[in-house]
Amino acid sequence: MNALPTKQQIQQEWARRTSLGFARYFFPFREGMDLIEGPHHRVIGQALDRVLNGEISRLIITLPPGYTKTEMAVVNFAARGFAINPAARFIHATFSDDLARENSDKIKGLIQSEEFQAMWAFGIDASTSAKDRWKTTANGGMLAKAAGGPITGFRAGYMDKTRFTGALIVDDPLKPDDAFSPTKRKTVNQRATNTFRSRLAHDGVPIIVIMQRLHGDDFAGHLLTGGTGEIWDHLDLPVLIEGGADYPAEWTHGRPIGHGLPDGPLWTEKHNAAEIEVLKADAYTFASQYMQRPVSIEGALFDMAGVRWFRHSELPEIDYYRMYADTAQKTEERNDYSVIELWGKSKGGAAVLVDLVRGKWEAPDLERNALAFWRKHVGKVVRGLCVEDKSSGTGLIQSLKRQGIPIEGIQRNRDKYTRGLDAAPWVATGQVWIPSDAAFSQAFKYEMQTFDGLGTGYDDQIDPMMDAVADMLGGYGLSYTGAI
């Protein structure tokens, strides 16, 4: 009677079969602790498995910094690639020679470990000791260099199209500090067409690009918009998964990989919902490095230098208040929040944001939260609640009217860009005041910083702001469909 396999034997078998199983098994030996798995590790592992199986030859993975991308797609991927074919040949490129050498040395160290050697009977050629260039005893090898430097005398893969023979792995080819240098971006981007492809033994040798987004014209952006003319399978993993998010039309040469992850934080052990809100304080970094949607700061409509920030203890004297709301159509859609904001017209003539509430609510909850927000501010001179007379807003107007709430239907007859242009001068001249110490302050700041009126940024909270500015300060004004 055959004995049942041990736990270690089962783990070893998964290490042979899958990239995630490989990472799971070897991480404790290398790092002295178990791999803290997030859902993204599974989908990254599946994408890498497809490369090793020959299903994908051009892969881009975009995800936030600190989400073990190098561990998964460089160290473990290359080591497992050598396990599958000890004669494989890899080129690894990243933004600096030092980091390339460090990653290369980790791969070599993993292969030389007792745990790896117990499963695969090959090693490192003792005559090749350099961290950035070494060979296996099966005539495979690794070359690791900075992405912008010379790569000569070595090719990834070899002339055998029937099996996996190696890969070119590009990990964060550009430093964040260099993202705004057109010269440095151009240098790295040109490598894709002038150098990287020429370093493949044949066009079927895989290229893997794994990085955080830094700029609209960074390396991933260059490839996704046709920089090499190739189609790239793209696993896009923002820090906050939003299932209804559209794949950008300008990424004409990207083929999105469906990951099936649920809405919410990508890896709660790294960043939970509250921590993600804090990340939004730096709007550009959040949009690019964390959400993988770099926006053009130059294209944003609001001059943030003109915003008047105040603490609630410094609230100016208010002449009157009014509420403005933006209601969602369906709670599961991208950015589909309902927002209700309380604004005050100060004695000095400014529009002052005092409070807001935001959530994804179905009709009964929308009504309940609107009533609660209204009652929260009983005692103030609130001149009604303005709601766009459309979709769920129409139902809210009808239900709150029946309860005696002075609610007013409005029409937004201009597009977001035009409305933003009307509001921008008031922001730039210090006539729009935003609290700096509210729970919603950083998220609100983020939306203002990234709003361009063209759908690039988020605008749940900006729509009511533009209504308040138009109503209290002037411009196109609001078109009422019926007031009480």
Task: Record the SSE blueprint.
Layout: H1 7-17, H2 19-31, H3 39-52, E1 58-62, H4 69-84, E2 89-94, H5 97-112, H6 114-117, E3 133-135, E4 141-146, E5 166-171, H7 182-196, E6 207-211, H8 219-224, E7 232-236, E8 240-241, E9 254-256, E10 264-265, H9 273-279, H10 283-290, E11 308-310, E12 318-326, E13 338-346, E14 351-359, H11 363-376, E15 382-388, H12 392-402, E16 407-411, H13 416-428, E17 432-435, H14 441-450, H15 462-473, E18 479-482
Parallel strand pairs: 1-6, 1-7, 2-4, 2-5, 5-6, 7-9, 11-17, 12-15, 14-17, 15-16
Antiparallel strand pairs: 3-4, 8-10, 12-13, 13-14, 16-18
Helix pairs in contact: 1-2, 2-4, 3-4, 4-5, 10-14, 11-12, 13-15
